[in-house]
Design goal:
Chain A: It is a multi-pass membrane protein. Chain A: It is found in: Cell membrane. The complex is a heterodimer of chains A (274) and B (294). Chain A has 274 residues and is an all-alpha fold. Chain A is 74% helix and 0% strand. Helices cover 74% and strands 1% of the residues of chain B. The chains are: A mainly alpha (274), B mainly alpha (294). At the A-B interface, helix 1, helix 4, helix 5, helix 6 and helix 7 of A face helix 1, helix 3, helix 4, helix 5 and helix 7 of B.
Chain lengths: 274, 294
């Protein structure tokens, strides 16, 4: 009995220490972002700043169009997400519900692309963007990412396959075609899967770094992560400014995460695809 | 009658698949092919690509930068993989043992996973700052003079590994937790009746039944580690003195700093071949690993 108490205490200690190590860096980011310049480099560090100030957020927005970066990130991520929801649910529906020749082959082709590391297409895609004149445009930020659909199509297919056959048989008897069947019955049924998919693609796009790094170099079209990395290059030592920028990058996704936790964790458990 | 139904079906399938397929064709399939062709050329984007056969691949063998990038990637993997798997398995097992607040714990460990790599790298750069960072301050409290971390070639990769393990722990832990919760309770109940201890239950039930999950996690993490880039680029840009230069960083530099499109493409195909090999081996081993009897 006694040894199981020790084990319990040990379990909680490790879990709480681990959880603390996950949260404290974020609290430290927030603390630094709210400090005055002078307080940033004080040792021992002030954990809760004596003078809390929003000065760093104001200064960041004066030095860089950080609000614009924010809106760019939001617009790009939302557009990619909506696009993927439409494309993946249509594709998933076809693979799950329509019997046609070559279906398995095409589906395998889709899945096969998951094996190809995204770096393989990096150079040709950059060349294509240059050739199309899309460098430093929203088109370059949005359109190629909108078609990273292999996983999403797979997810939607898995979901649609579980819908009972009787539903579509009844619909066909009423003379309903595939398109209305999809729009009026399957899409409304698929809300949980669509929620998972939208969380997943929003997060991917919001946090994406490498692709925006390649196709943008003007401040008008930069997304938040890219803007932040530029900020870091220019003000290497201004840690309170950098942390203010980081807060602006982390906060929105954390708020979404708090409200839609279930979908985040489910969505990512089923993937592991970068 | 039968024929028109079939035609209607084919037409419907085509319409539903067309938007996605066309997009994939232009932004994925053709670029994959183009990248393969480019890897046999020399091209700086200005003139026309020049066909040079397998020269880029042969050259990679003696390319010092690429070889050290491969080496650094392996160093990263050797440090990162066992740590992230051990720690996340430990946390998952503890969370699976009738503790309170499992939902809250799971949510907290997952926060770094949803944050961007840029944000995480920035936060850790600040924590690891040699002069004013919290980590070296804490070390100084116990009388240890902290290293220069990202500014020291001997410590920089270690710092990147710590950051990566910290960020990915929650993700791997959640997969392990799902695996653990998939193990039927009655195995443990039966073992309890037989009077098995904690260790015996772990060895004879948890370990064998968690094997598929562990295998999956191992492969996914291995594949992802070969593609490590964001944190490296933001924290060190491959430095100091090239100490953290990794494969993708070399691809990026060759393509977008030196404009050697052919070399970059060849490097990305080497990466692809590595990942393909891992996947093929995984498929072969999967059967052997996953067929288990208890």
């Amino acid at each position: 009995m006694k040894s199981s108490n020790v084990l319990r205490a040990l379990t909680y200690t490790v879990l709480i220490l681990g959880a603390a190590s996950m949260i404290i860096p974020f609290l430290w980011m927030l603390s630094t972002a709210l400090k005055t310049d002078a307080a940033t480099f004080v040792l021992p560090p002030e954990i809760i700043p004596k003078n809390i100030t929003l000065h760093n957020f104001i200064k960041v927005s004066q030095l860089m169009p950080i609000f614009r970066f924010f809106m760019n990130s939001l617009g790009v991520a939302l557009t990619i997400t909506v696009g993927q929801l439409i494309i993946c649910s249509m594709g998933g529906f076809a693979f799950a519900r329509i019997d046609f020749k070559g279906r398995n082959l095409i589906f395998l082709l889709y899945l096969g692309t998951l094996m190809v590391p995204s770096q393989v297409t990096l150079t040709p895609l950059f060349i294509l963007m240059k050739y199309l004149g899309w460098i430093n445009t929203y088109k370059a930020l949005i359109i190629p990412s909108m078609f990273k659909i292999a996983f999403g199509t797979f997810l939607m297919k898995q979901f649609f396959m579980n819908v009972p056959k009787s539903i579509e048989e009844a619909a066909f008897l009423d003379g309903v075609g595939y398109f209305r069947l999809f729009k009026s019955i399957f899409v409304p049924l698929a809300k949980p899967a669509l929620a998972t998919l939208s969380i997943f693609s929003f997060m991917e796009s919001w946090n994406n770094f490498l692709w925006p790094l390649i196709v943008t170099n003007d401040t008008l079209h930069m997304t938040l992560p890219l803007g932040l990395s530029v900020l870091q290059g220019r003000w290497e030592t201004n840690w309170n400014l950098l942390m203010a920028g980081t807060v602006i990058n982390v906060l929105p996704i954390l708020i979404v995460y708090i409200f839609a936790q279930k979908y985040f964790i489910e969505g990512l458990t089923h993937t592991g695809i970068k | 009658m039968q024929k028109t139904v079939k035609r209607k079906r084919r037409l419907a399938a085509m319409l539903f698949l067309l938007p996605g397929f066309l997009g994939m064709l232009v932004f994925l399939f053709i670029p994959i092919g183009a990248s393969f062709v480019l890897s046999f050329t020399e091209w700086d984007l200005l003139g026309d690509p020049k066909f040079i056969g397998a020269y880029n691949y042969i050259d990679l063998l003696s390319n010092e930068d690429f070889r050290s990038a491969l080496q650094h990637t392996l160093t990263f993997i050797v440090g990162y993989l066992p740590s992230v798997i051990f720690l996340s398995l430990l946390i998952a097992i503890l969370l699976n043992s009738k503790v309170r607040g499992i939902v809250a714990f799971r949510a907290i460990y997952f926060i770094p996973v949803v944050s961007s790599w840029v944000a995480v790298s920035m936060i850790w750069k600040w924590l690891l700052n040699p002069q004013y960072g919290v980590i070296n301050y804490l070390l100084s409290l116990i009388g240890v003079q902290g290293p220069m971390w990202l500014y020291d070639p001997n410590w920089a990769m270690f710092a990147i590994i710590i950051t990566s393990v910290w960020k990915d722990l929650g993700f791997v832990m959640v997969i392990f937790l799902a695996g653990l919760q998939g193990i039927p309770k009655f195995y443990y109940e039966a073992a309890n009746i037989d009077g098995a201890g904690v260790i015996a239950k772990f060895r004879h039930i948890t370990v064998p039944l968690l094997r598929p999950t562990t295998f999956f996690v191992l492969i996914i993490s291995l594949i992802n580690s070969f593609q490590v880039f964001d944190q490296v680029w933001i924290m060190t840009e491959g430095g100091p003195a090239g100490a953290t230069s990794v494969i993708v960083e070399q691809i990026y530099k060759n393509a977008f700093s030196y404009y050697k499109m052919g070399v970059a493409s060849a490097m990305s195909w080497v990466l692809f071949i590595i990942i393909l090999t891992i996947t093929v081996i995984q498929n072969r081993l999967q059967k052997r690993w996953i067929d288990y009897e208890i």
